[in-house]
Amino acid sequence: MNTAFLQERITATKAQIVAYEDATTALASGAVQSYTLDTGQTRQTVTKLDLVGLQKTLDALYNRLCVFEARLTGNGVIIGRPVW
Predict the structure, then answer these.
(1) If you ran DSSP here, which 8-state letter would residue 15 be given?
(2) pLDDT bracket for residue 80 (50, 70, 90)
(3) Half-sphere CA count of 61, side-chain side, radius 13 A
(4) How many CA atoms lie within 13 A of 19 on its CB side?
(5) Distances (CA, A) of 64 to 9, 18, 69, 70
(6) In whole angstroms, what is the distance from residue 49 CA to residue 78 CA?
(7) Other residues' Cβ atoms within 10 Å of the Cβ of residue 35
(8) Which residues does 67 contact at the CB level (< 8 Å), separation at least 6?
(9) How far apart are CA 19 and CA 36, in angstroms?
(10) Which ranges in the chain belong to alpha helices (H)?
(11) How far is 72 from 77, CA to CA, in rounded Å?
């Protein structure tokens, strides 16, 4: 893959992670009842009932970030299997 493309995707993914973490923190602290989540691509209002979904999305974003960074640096995960 193109290095510039991967770097662009890493930057976008990091911005989304920050947005989701801010929403999760604000809702979990109890300071607000609803939060407007603006990822730069979409805008939605979330509540405390959405915390589980926000955490799942955040986990997926972290996984995506790890994959992009591994592709950018040429590192990856290798699973060794016995030859027998």
Answers:
(1) H
(2) low
(3) 20
(4) 19
(5) 9, 14, 9, 10
(6) 38
(7) 20
(8) none
(9) 10
(10) 3-29, 51-73
(11) 13
Element (H, E) at 80: none
Which pLDDT value is given to residue 1?
64
Whether the Cβ atoms of residue 64 and residue 16 lie closer than 8 Å to each other: no
pLDDT tens track for 18-73 = 999 999 999 999 888 999 988 777 889 999 999 999 999 999 999 999 989 988 88
Sort 26 into a burial class: Cβ within 10 Å, 0-12 / 13-18 / 19+.
middle
Task: Name the one residue in this structure whose structure tokens are 């699973």.
Answer: 79
- Which residue's entry shows tokens 């915390």? 51
Cα 16 from Cα 58, distance rounded (Å)? 8
Q: What is the pTM of this model?
A: 0.81
Q: Are 10 and 80 in contact (CB under 8 A)?
A: no
